[in-house]
Design brief:
Helices cover 31% and strands 26% of the residues. With 312 residues, the chain is an alpha+beta fold.
Length: 312
């Protein structure tokens, strides 16, 4: 049957028409996309907790989009140089990938190695073997959290496989294969970047019927239970943070510095009866008076400073 629609038949409705590519048929319904979003919001919350406890820094992870696209489209939208972590499903042998901007990876590695969490001075896009091993430990934790986030829908035995820096070398499937791409907004300290998780459709296909609101809400929608809250509280309570008491400050010339000798006195801007500033992680938190306790120099907290910063 050959049926043609003329422009006169379409009339004024042409503005409502959308081009549909049958080679790129959407596999998931809107309801299934919403369930995927909820699953990965759960993953994002737990991932932020993991990274924050490992880096001892402010971390926030949020789901921004869940899209269906062809594999070649995903590869083409990535920059020429990136950090691609490859995970493999144990039973099926199907691989998925997590894309992270090199700058964010360097920030995390710098923090894990005891730095301040900055990418300044790296000047490259690839990791050394030592850096890759340090980052691998964090990625293994990511794998465990991803498995836990999916546990209400399916058992997803994952393992870390390798790392790529060139998207063209990544082989997850054929170019025309459908993939699900979840985008996250990742914030570590003051650095913000986008992270992507690319999951081949064939990995999810056997479990698609379970991606319904009925199954999600009826079989264990994730909530913050007491055990997880206590775990987070325990990790936070045992974080080690630097506490510094500042005796005072002074400004002198370089000539005066070069002329300093033993028994010379530098007058500070702090009066004797004024409280000292106590800083936690370089943020002023308390006012205190100096003293001694058990033959050691000590301070007595006199006042709590109510700050307005986001780290307070």
């Amino acid at each position: 049957m050959d049926y043609r629609v003329s422009n006169s038949q379409i009339g004024g409705t042409s503005t409502n028409l959308k081009v549909y590519d049958f080679k790129k048929a959407l596999r998931l319904s809107m309801e299934q996309v919403r369930v995927l979003t909820r699953i990965h919001e759960n993953f994002a919350y737990q991932l932020a907790s993991l990274i924050s406890s490992e880096l001892r820094s402010f971390v926030q992870v949020e789901v921004t989009t869940v899209e269906q696209m062809l594999y070649e489209e995903f590869i083409n939208k990535l920059p020429d140089s990136t950090i691609l972590s490859v995970f493999e499903s144990g039973e099926q042998g199907i691989r998925m990938a997590m894309d992270l901007n090199p700058e964010m990876a360097f920030v995390m590695i710098d923090r894990l190695l005891g730095g301040k969490g900055t990418a300044e001075g790296w000047g490259r896009s690839s990791l050394t073997p030592i850096e890759a091993n340090v980052f691998k430990r964090l990625l293994e934790g990511v794998v465990q959290i991803l498995q836990k986030a999916w546990s209400d829908i399916m058992v997803l035995p994952l393992k870390y496989v390798n790392m790529e820096t060139n998207p063209q070398f990544l082989q997850l499937g054929i170019p025309t294969e459908t993939v699900i791409v979840i985008a996250f907004q990742l914030t570590v300290g003051k650095v913000e970047e986008t992270m992507h998780l690319c999951i081949p459709y064939i990995l999810l296909e056997p479990y698609i019927p379970k991606l319904s609101s009925h199954n999600w809400y009826g079989h264990g929608k994730w909530v913050k239970n007491r055990e997880e809250s206590e775990y987070l509280q325990d990790r936070i309570e045992h974080l080690i943070v630097p506490v510094i008491t500042e005796l005072g400050r002074a400004t002198i010339t370089m000539e005066e510095i070069l002329g300093l000798n033993v028994n010379d006195v530098i007058q500070l801007n702090q009066l004797v009866d004024e409280p000292l500033q106590v800083r936690v992680n370089e943020e002023m938190k308390f006012l205190a008076h100096p003293g001694t306790k058990k033959s050691r120099v000590a301070i007595k907290i006199e006042h709590l400073i109510e700050g307005e910063g986001k780290n307070d």
